[in-house]
Design goal:
Blueprint: H1 2-15, H2 20-36, H3 40-54, H4 63-76, H5 87-99, H6 105-121, H7 127-139, H8 143-155, H9 165-178, H10 182-188, H11 190-193, H12 204-216, H13 220-234, H14 244-257, H15 259-269, H16 278-292, E1 297-299, E2 314-316, H17 317-339, H18 343-352
Antiparallel strand pairs: 1-2
Length: 353
Protein backbone atom coordinates (compact mmCIF):
# COMPACT_ATOMS: atom_id res chain seq x y z
CA UNK A 1 0.00 0.00 0.00
CA UNK A 2 1.11 3.55 -0.66
CA UNK A 3 0.72 4.57 2.98
CA UNK A 4 3.14 1.79 4.04
CA UNK A 5 5.76 3.42 1.85
CA UNK A 6 5.00 6.80 3.40
CA UNK A 7 5.44 5.34 6.87
CA UNK A 8 8.73 3.74 5.89
CA UNK A 9 10.00 7.06 4.54
CA UNK A 10 9.06 8.81 7.79
CA UNK A 11 10.91 6.17 9.79
CA UNK A 12 13.99 6.55 7.62
CA UNK A 13 13.89 10.30 8.23
CA UNK A 14 13.47 9.61 11.95
CA UNK A 15 16.49 7.35 12.00
CA UNK A 16 18.64 10.13 10.52
CA UNK A 17 17.78 12.57 13.34
CA UNK A 18 19.31 12.95 16.80
CA UNK A 19 16.85 15.28 18.53
CA UNK A 20 14.13 13.35 20.41
CA UNK A 21 11.65 16.15 19.68
CA UNK A 22 12.18 15.83 15.94
CA UNK A 23 12.09 12.04 16.08
CA UNK A 24 8.85 12.09 18.08
CA UNK A 25 7.24 14.48 15.60
CA UNK A 26 7.92 12.07 12.73
CA UNK A 27 6.67 9.09 14.74
CA UNK A 28 3.42 10.95 15.41
CA UNK A 29 3.02 11.59 11.68
CA UNK A 30 3.55 7.90 11.01
CA UNK A 31 1.03 6.94 13.70
CA UNK A 32 -1.57 9.25 12.19
CA UNK A 33 -1.12 7.52 8.84
CA UNK A 34 -1.62 4.07 10.38
CA UNK A 35 -4.73 5.26 12.21
CA UNK A 36 -6.25 6.79 9.09
CA UNK A 37 -5.62 3.50 7.33
CA UNK A 38 -7.01 1.39 10.22
CA UNK A 39 -3.83 -0.59 10.74
CA UNK A 40 -3.68 -1.62 14.42
CA UNK A 41 -0.47 -3.66 14.06
CA UNK A 42 1.52 -0.71 12.74
CA UNK A 43 -0.18 1.60 15.24
CA UNK A 44 0.76 -0.72 18.09
CA UNK A 45 4.43 -0.98 17.19
CA UNK A 46 4.85 2.71 16.38
CA UNK A 47 3.28 3.73 19.69
CA UNK A 48 5.73 1.50 21.54
CA UNK A 49 8.52 3.26 19.66
CA UNK A 50 7.02 6.62 20.58
CA UNK A 51 7.00 5.67 24.27
CA UNK A 52 10.62 4.54 24.08
CA UNK A 53 11.57 7.77 22.34
CA UNK A 54 9.83 10.05 24.82
CA UNK A 55 11.53 8.24 27.69
CA UNK A 56 14.66 10.08 26.57
CA UNK A 57 13.05 13.43 27.43
CA UNK A 58 11.83 15.08 30.63
CA UNK A 59 8.24 15.04 29.31
CA UNK A 60 5.44 12.50 29.22
CA UNK A 61 2.98 14.22 26.89
CA UNK A 62 2.43 11.50 24.32
CA UNK A 63 3.33 8.29 26.11
CA UNK A 64 0.31 7.95 28.39
CA UNK A 65 -2.26 8.39 25.57
CA UNK A 66 -0.20 6.04 23.40
CA UNK A 67 -0.11 3.41 26.12
CA UNK A 68 -3.84 3.73 26.76
CA UNK A 69 -4.36 3.04 23.04
CA UNK A 70 -2.08 -0.01 23.28
CA UNK A 71 -4.08 -1.45 26.20
CA UNK A 72 -7.31 -0.88 24.33
CA UNK A 73 -5.91 -2.48 21.15
CA UNK A 74 -4.84 -5.54 23.11
CA UNK A 75 -8.36 -5.94 24.51
CA UNK A 76 -9.89 -5.58 21.04
CA UNK A 77 -7.41 -7.83 19.22
CA UNK A 78 -5.95 -10.35 21.72
CA UNK A 79 -5.32 -12.75 18.87
CA UNK A 80 -2.96 -10.24 17.20
CA UNK A 81 -0.93 -8.89 20.12
CA UNK A 82 1.22 -10.47 22.81
CA UNK A 83 0.72 -8.89 26.23
CA UNK A 84 4.38 -9.49 27.08
CA UNK A 85 5.33 -7.05 24.33
CA UNK A 86 4.27 -4.03 26.38
CA UNK A 87 4.74 -5.06 30.04
CA UNK A 88 8.20 -3.49 30.14
CA UNK A 89 6.74 -0.18 29.00
CA UNK A 90 3.96 -0.64 31.58
CA UNK A 91 6.61 -0.25 34.30
CA UNK A 92 7.66 3.06 32.78
CA UNK A 93 4.07 4.25 32.68
CA UNK A 94 3.66 3.48 36.38
CA UNK A 95 6.59 5.79 37.03
CA UNK A 96 4.98 8.48 34.91
CA UNK A 97 1.61 8.32 36.66
CA UNK A 98 3.40 8.56 40.00
CA UNK A 99 5.13 11.73 38.82
CA UNK A 100 1.87 13.26 37.52
CA UNK A 101 0.14 15.24 40.29
CA UNK A 102 -3.20 15.14 38.43
CA UNK A 103 -3.65 11.38 38.67
CA UNK A 104 -5.41 10.32 41.90
CA UNK A 105 -3.69 7.90 44.24
CA UNK A 106 -6.62 5.51 44.01
CA UNK A 107 -6.15 5.30 40.25
CA UNK A 108 -2.41 4.73 40.63
CA UNK A 109 -3.11 1.84 43.01
CA UNK A 110 -5.55 0.32 40.51
CA UNK A 111 -3.01 0.63 37.71
CA UNK A 112 -0.35 -1.05 39.86
CA UNK A 113 -2.70 -3.93 40.63
CA UNK A 114 -3.55 -4.27 36.95
CA UNK A 115 0.16 -4.49 36.20
CA UNK A 116 0.51 -7.18 38.89
CA UNK A 117 -2.36 -9.18 37.37
CA UNK A 118 -0.83 -9.03 33.89
CA UNK A 119 2.55 -10.17 35.18
CA UNK A 120 0.98 -13.16 36.92
CA UNK A 121 -1.18 -14.30 34.04
CA UNK A 122 1.84 -14.22 31.74
CA UNK A 123 3.91 -16.33 34.10
CA UNK A 124 6.30 -13.64 35.34
CA UNK A 125 7.44 -13.17 38.91
CA UNK A 126 6.27 -10.22 41.03
CA UNK A 127 9.78 -8.78 41.24
CA UNK A 128 8.85 -5.83 38.94
CA UNK A 129 5.62 -5.21 40.88
CA UNK A 130 7.43 -4.94 44.21
CA UNK A 131 10.01 -2.68 42.57
CA UNK A 132 7.20 -0.34 41.49
CA UNK A 133 5.73 -0.41 45.02
CA UNK A 134 9.15 0.39 46.51
CA UNK A 135 9.51 3.35 44.16
CA UNK A 136 6.16 4.72 45.30
CA UNK A 137 7.14 4.29 48.96
CA UNK A 138 10.40 6.17 48.36
CA UNK A 139 8.46 8.86 46.50
CA UNK A 140 6.22 9.28 49.57
CA UNK A 141 9.20 9.14 51.97
CA UNK A 142 7.72 6.01 53.55
CA UNK A 143 11.08 4.37 54.18
CA UNK A 144 9.82 1.44 56.26
CA UNK A 145 7.47 0.49 53.43
CA UNK A 146 10.26 0.92 50.89
CA UNK A 147 12.46 -1.46 52.87
CA UNK A 148 9.60 -3.97 53.08
CA UNK A 149 8.95 -3.89 49.35
CA UNK A 150 12.63 -4.23 48.47
CA UNK A 151 12.81 -7.30 50.69
CA UNK A 152 9.74 -8.70 48.91
CA UNK A 153 11.41 -7.89 45.58
CA UNK A 154 14.51 -9.83 46.56
CA UNK A 155 12.42 -12.84 47.55
CA UNK A 156 11.01 -13.08 44.03
CA UNK A 157 12.83 -14.75 41.15
CA UNK A 158 14.48 -12.67 38.45
CA UNK A 159 13.14 -12.91 34.90
CA UNK A 160 13.08 -10.90 31.70
CA UNK A 161 10.62 -8.35 33.13
CA UNK A 162 12.81 -7.61 36.15
CA UNK A 163 14.91 -4.47 36.32
CA UNK A 164 18.60 -5.05 35.72
CA UNK A 165 21.02 -5.46 38.61
CA UNK A 166 22.38 -1.91 38.25
CA UNK A 167 18.91 -0.37 38.56
CA UNK A 168 18.03 -2.57 41.53
CA UNK A 169 21.26 -1.62 43.27
CA UNK A 170 20.35 2.03 42.75
CA UNK A 171 17.13 1.43 44.70
CA UNK A 172 19.12 -0.24 47.49
CA UNK A 173 21.60 2.64 47.67
CA UNK A 174 18.81 5.24 47.64
CA UNK A 175 17.13 3.63 50.63
CA UNK A 176 20.33 3.38 52.69
CA UNK A 177 21.31 6.97 51.88
CA UNK A 178 17.92 8.21 53.01
CA UNK A 179 18.20 6.18 56.20
CA UNK A 180 21.56 7.84 56.86
CA UNK A 181 23.49 4.58 56.46
CA UNK A 182 26.20 6.07 54.25
CA UNK A 183 28.85 3.39 54.63
CA UNK A 184 26.28 0.68 54.03
CA UNK A 185 24.97 2.52 50.96
CA UNK A 186 28.43 2.64 49.40
CA UNK A 187 29.08 -0.99 50.25
CA UNK A 188 25.71 -2.19 48.92
CA UNK A 189 26.15 -0.28 45.66
CA UNK A 190 29.89 -0.88 45.22
CA UNK A 191 29.52 -3.07 42.15
CA UNK A 192 27.41 -0.49 40.35
CA UNK A 193 29.18 2.62 41.66
CA UNK A 194 32.45 1.21 40.30
CA UNK A 195 30.75 0.53 36.94
CA UNK A 196 31.10 -3.22 37.12
CA UNK A 197 27.40 -3.34 36.29
CA UNK A 198 25.86 -0.51 34.29
CA UNK A 199 22.57 0.29 32.56
CA UNK A 200 21.36 3.37 30.70
CA UNK A 201 21.60 6.14 33.29
CA UNK A 202 23.30 3.97 35.88
CA UNK A 203 25.46 4.76 37.73
CA UNK A 204 24.93 8.44 36.82
CA UNK A 205 21.60 8.64 38.67
CA UNK A 206 23.11 6.94 41.71
CA UNK A 207 26.09 9.32 41.69
CA UNK A 208 23.62 12.21 41.83
CA UNK A 209 21.80 10.66 44.79
CA UNK A 210 25.14 10.38 46.56
CA UNK A 211 25.82 14.04 45.79
CA UNK A 212 22.47 15.02 47.31
CA UNK A 213 22.64 13.03 50.53
CA UNK A 214 26.33 13.55 51.29
CA UNK A 215 25.74 17.27 50.67
CA UNK A 216 22.77 17.31 53.04
CA UNK A 217 24.85 15.47 55.64
CA UNK A 218 27.52 18.17 55.39
CA UNK A 219 30.16 15.93 53.84
CA UNK A 220 31.12 18.27 51.01
CA UNK A 221 34.28 16.36 50.10
CA UNK A 222 32.36 13.17 49.46
CA UNK A 223 29.60 15.07 47.67
CA UNK A 224 32.22 16.69 45.42
CA UNK A 225 33.80 13.31 44.70
CA UNK A 226 30.49 11.98 43.41
CA UNK A 227 29.73 15.25 41.61
CA UNK A 228 32.91 14.78 39.57
CA UNK A 229 31.84 11.25 38.67
CA UNK A 230 28.36 12.48 37.72
CA UNK A 231 29.55 15.39 35.59
CA UNK A 232 31.68 13.04 33.50
CA UNK A 233 28.67 10.84 32.74
CA UNK A 234 26.38 13.83 32.20
CA UNK A 235 28.59 15.02 29.34
CA UNK A 236 27.54 11.90 27.40
CA UNK A 237 23.80 12.74 27.57
CA UNK A 238 23.73 15.32 24.79
CA UNK A 239 20.12 14.81 23.71
CA UNK A 240 18.66 12.94 26.68
CA UNK A 241 16.96 15.46 28.96
CA UNK A 242 15.12 12.90 31.10
CA UNK A 243 17.42 13.11 34.16
CA UNK A 244 16.53 16.75 34.87
CA UNK A 245 15.79 15.97 38.54
CA UNK A 246 19.27 14.46 38.85
CA UNK A 247 20.75 17.59 37.29
CA UNK A 248 18.80 19.51 39.95
CA UNK A 249 20.65 17.58 42.68
CA UNK A 250 23.95 18.55 41.09
CA UNK A 251 22.87 22.18 40.80
CA UNK A 252 21.78 22.33 44.44
CA UNK A 253 25.19 21.07 45.53
CA UNK A 254 26.99 23.64 43.37
CA UNK A 255 24.96 26.48 44.88
CA UNK A 256 26.64 25.81 48.22
CA UNK A 257 29.98 24.59 46.85
CA UNK A 258 30.82 26.98 43.99
CA UNK A 259 28.24 29.64 43.16
CA UNK A 260 29.90 30.75 39.93
CA UNK A 261 29.81 27.20 38.62
CA UNK A 262 26.19 26.96 39.80
CA UNK A 263 25.22 29.91 37.61
CA UNK A 264 26.96 28.37 34.60
CA UNK A 265 25.24 25.05 35.32
CA UNK A 266 21.85 26.75 35.55
CA UNK A 267 22.41 28.52 32.23
CA UNK A 268 23.37 25.26 30.55
CA UNK A 269 20.51 23.10 31.82
CA UNK A 270 17.52 25.37 32.57
CA UNK A 271 15.87 24.43 29.27
CA UNK A 272 15.88 20.73 30.17
CA UNK A 273 12.95 21.50 32.44
CA UNK A 274 10.73 22.79 29.63
CA UNK A 275 7.45 20.89 29.66
CA UNK A 276 8.81 18.36 32.14
CA UNK A 277 6.76 15.94 34.20
CA UNK A 278 5.31 17.44 37.38
CA UNK A 279 7.74 15.82 39.79
CA UNK A 280 10.76 16.72 37.66
CA UNK A 281 9.51 20.30 37.39
CA UNK A 282 9.04 20.43 41.15
CA UNK A 283 12.54 19.12 41.84
CA UNK A 284 14.22 21.55 39.44
CA UNK A 285 12.14 24.57 40.52
CA UNK A 286 12.76 23.87 44.20
CA UNK A 287 16.48 23.32 43.79
CA UNK A 288 17.21 26.59 41.99
CA UNK A 289 15.56 28.83 44.61
CA UNK A 290 18.65 29.32 46.85
CA UNK A 291 20.60 30.52 43.80
CA UNK A 292 17.99 33.04 42.70
CA UNK A 293 17.44 34.29 46.27
CA UNK A 294 20.50 36.56 46.07
CA UNK A 295 18.36 39.07 44.16
CA UNK A 296 19.41 41.95 41.93
CA UNK A 297 19.98 41.75 38.18
CA UNK A 298 22.19 39.31 36.37
CA UNK A 299 23.23 38.68 32.79
CA UNK A 300 22.44 35.11 31.83
CA UNK A 301 22.82 33.22 28.57
CA UNK A 302 20.10 30.61 28.33
CA UNK A 303 18.28 28.65 25.65
CA UNK A 304 15.72 30.95 23.98
CA UNK A 305 13.02 28.30 24.44
CA UNK A 306 12.70 28.90 28.19
CA UNK A 307 9.50 30.72 29.08
CA UNK A 308 11.23 33.63 30.82
CA UNK A 309 13.84 34.25 28.07
CA UNK A 310 14.82 37.87 27.35
CA UNK A 311 16.64 38.94 24.19
CA UNK A 312 18.87 41.35 26.15
CA UNK A 313 19.99 38.52 28.50
CA UNK A 314 19.45 40.76 31.56
CA UNK A 315 17.28 39.18 34.23
CA UNK A 316 15.61 40.34 37.43
CA UNK A 317 16.47 37.53 39.85
CA UNK A 318 13.52 38.33 42.10
CA UNK A 319 11.22 37.78 39.14
CA UNK A 320 12.89 34.44 38.40
CA UNK A 321 12.72 33.48 42.07
CA UNK A 322 8.98 34.19 42.13
CA UNK A 323 8.56 32.27 38.87
CA UNK A 324 10.20 29.11 40.19
CA UNK A 325 8.78 29.42 43.69
CA UNK A 326 5.25 29.66 42.29
CA UNK A 327 5.84 26.54 40.20
CA UNK A 328 7.32 24.60 43.09
CA UNK A 329 4.65 25.69 45.56
CA UNK A 330 1.78 24.89 43.22
CA UNK A 331 3.19 21.43 42.55
CA UNK A 332 3.95 20.80 46.23
CA UNK A 333 0.32 21.61 47.10
CA UNK A 334 -0.99 19.37 44.32
CA UNK A 335 1.22 16.43 45.24
CA UNK A 336 0.47 16.73 48.96
CA UNK A 337 -3.28 16.87 48.30
CA UNK A 338 -2.99 13.87 46.00
CA UNK A 339 -0.75 11.93 48.38
CA UNK A 340 -2.53 12.89 51.60
CA UNK A 341 0.68 14.16 53.20
CA UNK A 342 2.82 17.26 53.69
CA UNK A 343 6.07 15.77 52.37
CA UNK A 344 6.47 18.02 49.36
CA UNK A 345 5.74 21.27 51.17
CA UNK A 346 8.22 20.32 53.91
CA UNK A 347 10.87 19.73 51.28
CA UNK A 348 10.11 23.11 49.74
CA UNK A 349 10.28 24.88 53.10
CA UNK A 350 13.80 23.51 53.58
CA UNK A 351 14.93 25.45 50.51
CA UNK A 352 13.34 28.79 51.39
CA UNK A 353 14.24 29.10 55.09
Amino acid sequence: MEYNLQVQKLLLKRDALSSPNDRIALLKQAINLTDVNSDPEWGFELRLELIREEKGTSRCNDSLPAFTWILDAFEKYPEIFDESDFLWEYKWMLGSVRRNSSIPMEQIDLIAEDFKMRLQRNGYSLRPYYTVKAHMALFLSQLDDAKKYLELRNAESRDEMSNCRACELDDDVELELRLGNFDKALNVGKEMLEKKVVCGHMPFVCYCSCVKYFHRAGNMDKAHEFFNKAIKDLSELEYDTSPVSDVAKMLRFLIDYDRNKAWAFFEQYAHWNIGSEDFLDYEFSKSVLPLLAEGGEKTLTVNSAVEWYRADNLYDLQYLYNYYYTRAKNLADRFDRRNGSDVFNKQLEEEII
